[in-house]
């Protein structure tokens, strides 16, 4: 029998989200020397706020942030700022006052510190006391996904089949070594597969497929005892991918079965400089208050930097 055909032995709803935010952000130094990479702005809102908004839109109102040293500004952002609010209120600046209050009203946010950055698997382990025996979502801040539809779909798959669920996106062969990649089997649902294998950052010739895990997971609580026994893997870190691979090999009654939801929408990768800049420009160009000024400037900028022969200038020749 295909594991996909089995009923869910544990219909517990997913209500909690875990957001790892303890990374050092070395790719964005020196900007991240004193400012968490999660607080770098996408126009005028920190990236991590988009992640929380996505969780809340999927009805995950209990959020645990896994933080570390120099991350206090994350806590401050999702707390009240009474002096600032009073100053804006006294000026009658209702719009900015609303934007300042919005983060503190998003969700019930909790915090726990990861003593040292020992990988995503270790960060998830730090959530064990808060999560307990409940299934939970993991949202990585490097991946921005504007709609909560993917997360909602993953929660639906968990409710139907149990086990754990990962988000998968097809990438080019030369990119597979940047991700954890999945071996998959089709089901009777076009966007759902059974995960048979997971390999963290494989060489292209060793990748089980081109379907890569992106930063959204629904984890069965059975992942915790597996993580406790998972040795450091690639990079000397405890990898969540390795624990999910072990679960995929287990029987459903032992917390096994891992499904994948095939995501074909748009994902913004803010984990490297070029993609971060593209994300900021994309978000800005879709803002009514910025687009009218920014788009003509961008067209002029592209024309100024076009090759002398005119290729790439948008002339169509």
Automatic annotation (TrEMBL):
CDD domains per UniProt: UGPase_prokaryotic
SUPFAM superfamilies the record matches: Nucleotide-diphospho-sugar transferases (SSF53448)
Reaction(s) this enzyme catalyzes, per UniProt: alpha-D-glucose 1-phosphate + UTP + H(+) = UDP-alpha-D-glucose + diphosphate
Gene3D superfamilies: Spore Coat Polysaccharide Biosynthesis Protein SpsA, Chain A
EC number: 2.7.7.9
Enzyme class (EC, first level): transferase
The protein's name in its UniProt record: UTP--glucose-1-phosphate uridylyltransferase
UniProtKB keywords: Nucleotidyltransferase, Transferase
Span of domain Nucleotidyl transferase: 16-279
GO molecular function, one term: UTP:glucose-1-phosphate uridylyltransferase activity
Superkingdom of this protein's organism: Bacteria
Family in the record: Belongs to the UDPGP type 2 family.
